[in-house]
Design a protein that fits this description.
The chain is an alpha/beta fold and 312 residues long. It folds into three domains: 136 residues, Zincin-like, CATH 3.30.2010; 104 residues, no CATH class; 36 residues. The protein is 62% helix and 8% strand. Helix 4 crosses helix 5, helix 5 packs across helix 7 and helix 6 packs across helix 10. The N and C termini lie far apart (117 Å).
Length: 312
């Protein structure tokens, strides 16, 4: 994402300021004194997160990489501060795979689409792992969808972001999402929610090994071909199915749940139930009338028989 160099001077500055550093496999988790507690807090979860990512995606980290924890007051070093300033202000984290350098902004970690430091770590570490697996050959929307899928579970806020978009505008095409990841916070929210939704929907359709199988196929073919080989359908067909299901789930269901629409539906159901009940009542009355006429006819017939055959 960010074409800024990670210089040796930055590493020297980290040493001079007595930064905290923890090694978890190939990951160097680092932070200035103000972030020391966060570094220690994240070390134990990182020992579970990184192996889980490698197992789920079926690839391994190629070599060392760094993730810096940036305290709320920011960084004093000018080189690192310039790198941090180049990332979108709303971003809780970012990764520069070519430089094998990432960062987590502690103050923003609780914001959408993450929620915790652990979630941001999993998201950014996934970017590094995907880069080691296939380089820069993944579409950005798919890479972000996979990273978000690894970083968190679907939440009520995802549904709200998604529904709000579908109620006010047309559904975005996946290929059109890429630029939104670098746009405003609102556009980025929708891009993350939509890309995550597609990846999650696809995993439900094709099984938990979908992503790792695509990454395996991409060793010898481009992404569209790898997708079709694994799923047995073109990407455009999959997107159309996901779009159709999403419109039903996130546009029409919420519309039916609005108060005015809900009362209209309830009223309609009541009217239909009343019509059906009245029809049943009429049928019952007709049956009763028929039974009464039959009983009267039978009584009259018996009376006539008694007259014709009086007892001695």
């Amino acid at each position: 994402m960010l074409a800024l160099p990670w210089s040796a001077r930055a590493a020297e500055t980290a040493e001079a300021e007595h930064w905290t550093r923890e090694w978890i496999g190939f990951l160097s988790l680092e932070g200035p004194p103000a972030a020391e507690r966060a570094v220690h807090r994240l070390t134990l979860p990182a020992q579970e997160i990184l192996p889980h990512l490698e197992t789920t995606l079926g690839v391994r980290y190629a070599r060392r990489f760094q993730i810096l924890l940036i305290p709320p007051e920011g960084l004093r070093d000018s080189t690192l501060a310039r790198i941090d300033a180049a990332a979108p202000p709303w971003a809780a984290g970012y990764m520069i795979p070519a430089q094998r350098l990432g960062a987590i902004r502690i103050a923003q970690a609780s914001q959408y689409p993450y929620g915790t430091l652990e979630s941001v770590l999993a998201h950014e570490a996934t970017h590094m792992l995907l880069h080691d697996a296939v380089g820069r050959r993944l579409p950005l929307w798919f890479e972000e969808g996979v990273a978000t899928w690894q970083g968190r579970q679907w939440s009520a806020q995802d549904s709200w972001v998604y529904t709000r978009s579908l109620l006010t505008s047309d559904f975005p095409a996946l290929a059109d999402l890429d630029s939104s990841f670098h746009a405003s916070a609102g556009e980025a929210d929708l891009a993350y929610a939509a890309s995550f939704a597609f990846v999650s929907w696809s995993v439900r359709q094709h099984g938990p090994d979908l992503v790792r199988n695509i990454l395996r196929e991409m060793k010898t073919r481009p992404f569209p071909s790898a997708w079709e080989t694994v799923t047995h359908q073109p990407l455009a067909q999959a997107e159309a199915g996901w779009r159709r299901d999403s419109l039903i789930r996130y546009r029409w269901f919420p519309l039916l749940a609005t108060s005015s629409t809900l009362w209209l539906v309830i009223t309609l159901i009541g009217v239909l139930a009343g019509i059906r009940k009245r029809a049943q009542a009429r049928a019952i009355r007709k049956r009763w009338d028929a039974e009464e006429r039959a009983a009267a006819a039978a009584t009259e017939a018996n009376a006539m028989q008694d007259i014709e055959n009086p007892q001695e």
